[in-house]
Amino acid sequence: MNTHQEKLWSKEFILITLCNLLLFLNLQMLLPSFPVYTKDAFNASDFTVSLVTSLFALSAIATRFFAAGILRKGKVSIILYTGAAIAVLATAGYYWCGSIALLLVMRVLFGIGFGLASTTLPTMAAHVIPPHRMGEGIGYFGLSTSLAMSIGPIIGLSLLGSFGFGTLTTAGTLVLILIFPLAFANRSVDLSQAGSAASTSSSKKNTGAALKKIALPGLLNLLLSVTYGGLLSFLALYGKEAHLSHIGSFFLFNALAIFLVRPFSGRIFDSKGHFSIMIAGAVFTMGGLVTLSLATSTLYIILAALLYGLGYGMIQPSIQAWMIKEVPVEQRGLANSMFFNSLDFGVAAGSMLLGVIAMHADYSGMYRISALFMGLFLVLYLVVSIWQRKKRSSQSEQRTA
C-alpha cells in the first residue's frame, strides 16, 4: 500500500472506518445496559457493578501494550481477526453467564479483544491516510466512534427494555461478526514494510524516543478525558439535583457539535499545526463545563453541550493525529495504544476523582472544578510549547553561529 497516495476516501479507508464503527457500536450498545442487567440479574452491589466497567477498561489498557509490540512486526490481520474473534465470543458468552464471577471473566475477555482491535484499526487507518491529510483523515475516522457513541446507547437500552438481555447480546454479537467480511475485503493493507524497518533497528531505543515525543499529547489527552469521565458518571445525577428534566440532551448536542467541527479542525491541523487547535479547543471545553455548572434550563444544557462538543471535537482527533505524526511508521501502533490508554485511564480517573469531589460539594461545584483540569491543560500546553520553541531557536542559532 502506498502511504503517499493523494486520495483520502479510498476503499481501504472506508472499510477500516466501517469496521471501527461496528466495534464501537457493540461497545456502546452494551456498556450502559450492564449496570441495569447486573443489578437485576445478580442483585449486585454498587462496587460489583463498577467492576463490570473497570475490569474491562484495565484489561483493554494492558492488552494495547501487547498489541503495539506485535503491530511493529506488521501482524495487522492476525491482531484484528484475533481481537474481533475474542470480542465475539465474550459478547455471546454474556448471556450464558450464570454467576457474577463468570460475567466478570467475560468482561475481561472482551477487554482483551477490544484492546487488540481498537489498537489495530486506527493504525491501519493511519497507514492508508495520505501523510499531509493525517489530521483530516483521523477526524473523519473518529466520526465513526462519535456516531457509535450517539446511537449505540439508544439501540442497546431499547433492545434491553423491549426484548431483554438475550436479544441485546445477540444483536451485539452480529454487529461484531460483520467486521470479518469487511476486514477480509481489506487484505491489501499491509504493514510488513514497517515491521521490517522496526526489526533492523534498536527496538527499545526507538520505543523510548517515541514515548518521549508523545508524552505531552498523551498527558493532554488524559486531562481532557478526566472531564469526560465526570460527564459520563455524574451527568444524570446532576440533572436530578438541579431539577433539569432534559439533561440527557447534552449528549445529543455534544455529538452534533463533534460531527460539525471534526472535519474542519482536521484540515486546520494539517495546514496550521496543533497550536492553532489546542488553545481554542481548551477554551471552548472550559466554557462548556462552566456553562453546564450554571445550568437552570434546557437552553443552558444545549449551549454547554455545543461548547464542550466543539472543544472536544477539535482537541481529541488532533491529539491522535499529533501522536501519529510524531513517531515513525513502525511505531504508530504504540502511538494509538498510548492515545486510547490515556483516554481510558483519564475517564476512569475522572470518575473516581470527581466522585470524591462530589462527596464534598454539589455537582455544579464539581463541574466548575472539572473545568480547572482544562485550565491545567492550557497552562501545561503553553509552557511546554514556549519552552520547545525557545529550545529550537537556541539550537538554530548555535548551528548558524
Automatic annotation (TrEMBL):
The organism's place on the tree of life at top rank: Bacteria
Pfam families per record? MFS_1
Q: Which UniProt key words apply to this protein? A: Membrane, Transmembrane, Transmembrane helix, Transport
Positions of transmembrane segments:
12-31, 51-71, 78-96, 102-126, 138-157, 163-184, 214-238, 244-261, 273-292, 298-315, 339-361, 367-387
Q: Name one GO molecular function term.
A: transmembrane transporter activity
Q: Which CDD domains match?
A: MFS_YfcJ_like (cd17489)
- Membrane topology qualifier: Multi-pass membrane protein
Q: Name one GO cellular component term.
A: plasma membrane
- Which intervals hold domain Major facilitator superfamily (MFS) profile? 12-393
Give the main localization category. Answer: membrane
Q: Where's it found, cell-wise?
A: Cell membrane
**Name of protein:** MFS transporter
The organism's taxonomic lineage, starting at the top: Bacteria, Bacillati, Bacillota, Bacilli, Bacillales
